[in-house]
């Protein structure tokens, strides 16, 4: 009988985890909406963890980039403890990819370029929302949107200084493939001086 999900074998993996990730991402994107959605885990200086979904907008040899209000809870936690984890989960593929590493802010030029590419309402939302802070009711937020739209008219919206990108630089990648009986395949890439060490983990 054909297995629903193929086994994950070391000899079928690319030695470069970024290349391996791109292959899995392309397969997920072919059939899923928002395949770039990932859970981002951070922790404050007391080690209290928090997790939320973000959209990972780009990745390359330097790392994986997402954007946020830097005065939000996640921004405060990344300032105090610049380490994080990302989890991509593609259920129809039976796959997960876990990344862990240091986080740095991207340049203003990168943040500006991405902000300019966003839909106008997303730009407005970034300006009016003091992310993670309390507000009395939804009407107050809607009023801010209306006021800003009236003030701007059709003028371009500048990126607010408190909003920008972060880049997670993976020290590890874990590729997880579902198998029957919860005997899942788990392959861990760990950064070494000259490349990557690849080991299999027990499920």
Give the oligomeric state. Answer: single chain
Number of helices: 5
Termini gap: 23 Å
CATH fold assignment: Pnp Oxidase, Chain A
The whole-number mean of residue pLDDT values reads: 95
Global geometry: elongated
Bin the helical content.
Answer: 25-40%
CATH class type: Mainly Beta
What letter string, H or E per element, gives the SSE order? HEEEEHEEHHHEEE
Low-confidence stretches: none
How many strands, what sense, and barrel or not for the largest sheet? 9 strands, antiparallel
If you had to describe this structure to a student in words, what would you say it looks like?
With 203 residues, this protein is an alpha+beta fold. The chain has one domain (10-116, 162-201): Pnp Oxidase, Chain A (Roll), CATH 2.30.110. The chain contains five helices and nine strands, in the order αββββαββαααβββ. Strands 1, 2, 3, 4, 5, 6, 7, 8 and 9 form a nine-stranded antiparallel sheet that branches. The protein is elongated. The mean pLDDT is 95.
Describe, in short, the structure shown.
The chain has 203 residues and is α+β, with helices and mostly antiparallel strands. 27% of the residues lie in helices and 36% in strands.
